[in-house]
Design brief:
This protein is of the alpha/beta class and 270 residues long. The chain has a single domain, classed as Metallo-beta-lactamase, Chain A (4-Layer Sandwich), CATH 3.60.15.10. The protein contains ten helices and 16 strands. Strands 7-8-9-10-11-12-15-14-13 form a nine-stranded mixed beta sheet. Strands 6-5-4-3-2-1-16 form a seven-stranded mixed beta sheet. A hairpin with a 6-residue loop joins strand 14 and strand 15. Helix 9 packs parallel to helix 10. The site of one zinc ion (ZN) has 7 residues, from helix 2.
Length: 270
Amino acid sequence: MTPEIHLHVLASGSKGNAAVVEGPEGLVLVDCGISRRALLARADELGLDMGRVSGVILTHEHSDHVGGLTVFCNRFDGPLFATAGTAGARPYLAELPFTLVGSSDEFELAGMRVRTFPTSHDVAEPMGLRFETADDALGYCTDTGELGPEALDALAGARILALESNHDERMLAGGPYPAHLKARVAGARGHLSNAQAAAALRELVGPDTETVVAMHLSQENNRPSVAVRELAAAVGAEPASGEDGRPEARTPDGRLTICCAAQDWPLSVW
Ligand SMILES: [Zn+2]
Ligand SMILES: [Zn+2]
C-alpha cells in the first residue's frame, strides 16, 4: 500500500473524542466531542489546518463524541454525516442539516471512499468506518461491545487500524465503578476490552497493516502500557521506545507498530 490516508487523533477517551482522517483531497473530522478551542489547539499542535475539513462524520450520539459539534458548526459549512438514528437522538443534533447515511453504506469524501458498518453500543444507530483509496485503507472503530462479522470484514487488512481497547477486564471488575456501570461497560453494547481487541487483531492484521492505534482507553480501568502490551502479545510485537515516552511495541521485522491514543495527547499516524 502507498500511504495516502493519515490519522490524527486529537482526543480519545470517555471525556471527549475527535479524530481527523486526512485524505488526498481534504480532511474529515470523525466525531466532535471536545470544545472548538481544544480542537483547534490540538490541530495546531499537529500542524493541521482545520480550514481544510471537508466533512464531519459522527459515529454515535454520546456527548463525548458530539458535545462540541454545535459550536464547531457555527463556523463550518460543509456536510455532516450521521445515521438517522444518531441525527435524531438529541434535539440539538436534530437542528443540524445532516446528510443521512446508513450503518452499512458507502459514500465519497475528501478523495476517499468511506464505508460504514454497524457497531454494538447502547445508542440508537452507531457505526464504525473504513476509509479507502485505490492504494490505502484505514479502519476506525470505537465504542462497541463486540465486533460483528461486518465490522471484522470492514476493518480487515487496513494499513492503519484504530481500534477501541477500552479496559482491562480485571481492572474493570476490581475497580471503582458501581456494578451497573461495570456491567454496561463489559456488556455486548458497551466497550471493547483489551482482550477482545487483542483477539480481533489476530484476524484483522494483514500483510499491509503498519500501525495499530489502541483507542478510547479508560482512565479508571486501563493503562496505556497494559493495553499496548496485551495487543502487542497478540501479534508478536515487542515493547519499543515510543515518541515522548509513549508506550509502543513493534514486531521484530519492524513492519507493525502498536501505539495508543490518549485523552489529552494528540497523535499523528502517517
Ligand atoms: Zn465514547
Ligand atoms: Zn459511546
